Amino acid sequence: MIKILLVDREGISSEGIRLIIDKEENMEFLGVYFQQDEVQRMVLKKQPDIVLFQVNQSHSFVIELTKTIKSISKQIKIIYILPSINQAFINKSVKVGVEGFFLSQSNYSNFISMIENVYHNYYVMPKEIAMAIVHQLQKGDEKQRLHSKLLEKDIDLTWRELDIVYLLYQRKKNQEIAKILHLKEKTIRDYVSIIYKKLGVNKRLLVINLLENLMEKDNQLSTKSLEKDCQ
């Protein structure tokens, strides 16, 4: 029997979740609670296997309460029901140990199977969230991927030149680049001239087009691979 506790204000959405869970013979709905002290007390008393969070309150409240529940027992699985994809919040959620995510606008026919999978120690999230996370990771490593693409073409840049090339790729102007890198604008112009020679072009727009074409091909391959894995 999978024991489930819901963190939410009493209302239509919480009643709907209760009805869905009550139909399952292998699940027990332990109730709806919202106040932090009350949730903590009921977690200790009823020892749920899974705590569902209807994320319609402040993110800091949800994160802190999740930490509290995990401090009581790391065996308790946490699932967030999200109204939308918020990348920063999802990143924090993963760090505090959330095992599952569900979008409130998704088809609830998959809701029960998601709970069962999380209960059996699988990490579960919708395709939309998985792709958002991967895209964020790709973005964070974008400079390194750009470097790799340039090396494939035998274009070897110093780390400072790479910093500037990456900012050119982001269509930053010399003045903006100088401010970001804490350098003089003349120094940036000198670096840009060197970069033009290494890339074999003599205009800024040609540099940007070259870099965008390199990264566009890489992004298309990554997206196709991810979509195939999520199917």
UniProtKB/TrEMBL annotation:
It is found in: Cytoplasm. Its main location: cytoplasm. Keywords: DNA-binding, Phosphoprotein, Transcription, Transcription regulation. One of its GO terms (molecular function) is DNA binding. InterPro entries: CheY-like_superfamily (IPR011006), Sig_transdc_resp-reg_C-effctor (IPR016032), Sig_transdc_resp-reg_receiver (IPR001789), Tscrpt_reg_LuxR_C (IPR000792), WalR-like (IPR039420). One of its GO terms (cellular component) is cytoplasm. SMART domains: HTH_LUXR. It comes from the Bacteria. One of its GO terms (biological process) is regulation of DNA-templated transcription. The keyword Repressor does not apply. PANTHER family: TWO-COMPONENT RESPONSE REGULATOR. This is HTH luxR-type domain-containing protein.
